[in-house]
Amino acid sequence: MTETASREPRLPQAQPPTLQTPNSSAPGSTGSNLPKPPRGQGSTRPAEAQRPLPDTTSDKATAAFIRRTLCSHNVLLGNGEKGRNTPRPIEEVLPPLTSSNGVDLQLYAIIAVIIKEFVQTWYAKITPDHVFVSEVIQIIAHCTRALEQRLRKVDLEALLLDEIPELIEAHLSAYRLAKQQAASHRSLVSDPRIIYHTLHPHPALTPVPTESVPSSIVEQRECESAWRQLLVQGVLAVLLPTEDLENGCLRALVAEIFAEMILGSGISSKACEGWLLWEGITRIAEVLQNDGVKEEDSQSDYASLGQPLSRLERYGLLSPPAAEQNGPPEPLLTSGRRHEDAPMTISGLFWAAVQYAFLAGMAMRAVIAAIATSSSLPLRPATSASELSPVGATRQSQQLRVGSPALGGPLASKRPIVSMRMWSCASRLVELDTRMPWLSGVISLLRWGTLAGPGRVGDTDGVLDRFLSHTVQMRVLNPAFLPILLRTLRATLFPNNTLAPPRQPPTEEEAKEIKRRCAATLLGLLPARVAAAFFASTSRAEQLRQAEELLDCLDDAYLNKHLIFQIVELIVLRLVPELGERGVQELLDERLG
């Protein structure tokens, strides 16, 4: 009986194609008609070499993997799996994690990988029982459902567009000031870590680790481990059921998994490394570049399918496509032009101006149509005073005291998207106020005009505010994107549903190359004229050097921890606001009586 319980059902696997010999005794075999390969070449199988690798990210393969890992004991428990031609769906076998079956499928796939790699490797050696795994799944399902209910009450627009950018902007300011002070000879402290930690302190990163004092490194690691345990214990004290919270052994095991495996190994050790952040930025930029290239290719393919020529091409005012094959088009005005080509150049300039005016009119028409249709969009839901973040509540109380007409209003109204810190964070990131102060001033003037100008189109529930809110909800916060994001995250972290081999940290030269590639990819997103105007140079090497300087803010992993840890704390506080009011021990005493 024990052997039967420990055996897991396996799905039939496709055998690699083999060549039948004439001596094959299989009935109906057609192998005799196939040519017999010469001796000594049996190891070469073109059919097997050309066979594509199995897709482990499809919904069917994902469901099969979850069934093998988490649902194998359902056959023995008599849950209706035995004797069925088609197994029951995952949502009927396992408890629901969220209100979306697509999200549950991807979440269960990630949970299955974690349980297979971190739990079953040692638990299966102790006992073949699956009760512990079932209890862990029930606890996770209870916590995820509670988190989903809390997530519905969080102002995601303010979190993503205002509060997190504010932390990034503070990190940029502190980093650049610390670097400037450390480089100057008028300061007594030459270590930028000490200056940054003084300007931007965090209890988990105290004291500043230095190689000259080895005890400081050990003490800082102990403080960081205590912070992780405290954070996870506080979340579990609020989300866990009472009967599971009373089980100290189970609570300690779950806290150890989340604190050390997820926060420790995943976020603290890997996600804070500069080279890993640069690689992530590079991948995002490459995706954006590929989308733009595909769009251009589709437009060029459409134009090359025998479409009739436009009027400008018909009358010779635009160069035909065949002329482009002979070389790049010549500039309109050059010093070596002959006199007889002058009328044609003036005509080309005229029609180019007409084209640009036509494109500007189309863009203006699209903007006016979008703003006109935004009047029919629903109002943004108001946030009660109890659900306001501390930052938002402080700002609105200050605005209410000073009586600001542009940003005032009732305490329960949301902050306008135009006035959120995302815009100032982007300006600080690219140093717009230093490189182009006139453009920064124009943008600030336009923003003030939308908030306090005629109509107040940018104020809360204004025409522009509702249009921006609707765009963010549809383009960024669309729930349909969450399963795709989770599937991409699983394929990146766990290729083929297994742990990826540990990656060796790159050397200093390799890290510089990763940073240079990231800067080059970001430069590829900008048109040549825009890059030349922004960096005040037409030299590609100079532009690349300045782009690398903008990425210097992610060089130090210790400084990156200040930013990552504060973002983690902010998200936890928005999901579990009780931690901002009471301590962990108070919450445990309240739950346990």
Explain what the structure shows.
Residues 100-289 form the PXA domain. Residues 23-33 have a biased composition (Polar residues). Residues 1-57, 319-338 are annotated as: Disordered. It is globular, with a radius of gyration of 31 Å. The longest helix has 32 residues, at 342-373. The protein contains 28 helices and no strands. Helix 9 (156-183) packs antiparallel against helix 27 and helix 11 (214-239) packs across helix 13. The protein is mainly α and 593 residues long. The two termini are 43 Å apart.
- Give me the Rg, rounded: 31 Å
Order of helices and strands: HHHHHHHHHHHHHHHHHHHHHHHHHHHH
Q: What are the segments in which pLDDT stays under 50 over at least 5 consecutive residues?
A: 1-50, 75-80, 299-343, 384-412
* Gross geometry: globular
Given helix and strand content, the structural type is: mainly alpha
- How does the major sheet shape up? none
Protein name: PXA domain-containing protein
Subcellular location: Cytoplasm
Biased composition (Basic and acidic residues): 1-10
Biased composition (Low complexity): 11-22
Topology:
Elements: H1 2-6, H2 46-49, H3 59-70, H4 74-77, H5 90-93, H6 101-118, H7 120-123, H8 131-151, H9 156-183, H10 192-199, H11 214-239, H12 242-245, H13 248-271, H14 274-303, H15 311-314, H16 321-325, H17 342-373, H18 390-402, H19 421-429, H20 432-435, H21 437-452, H22 463-475, H23 481-493, H24 508-524, H25 528-535, H26 540-550, H27 557-575, H28 584-592
Subcellular location: Cytoplasm
Keywords: Cytoplasm
GO molecular function, one term: phosphatidylinositol binding
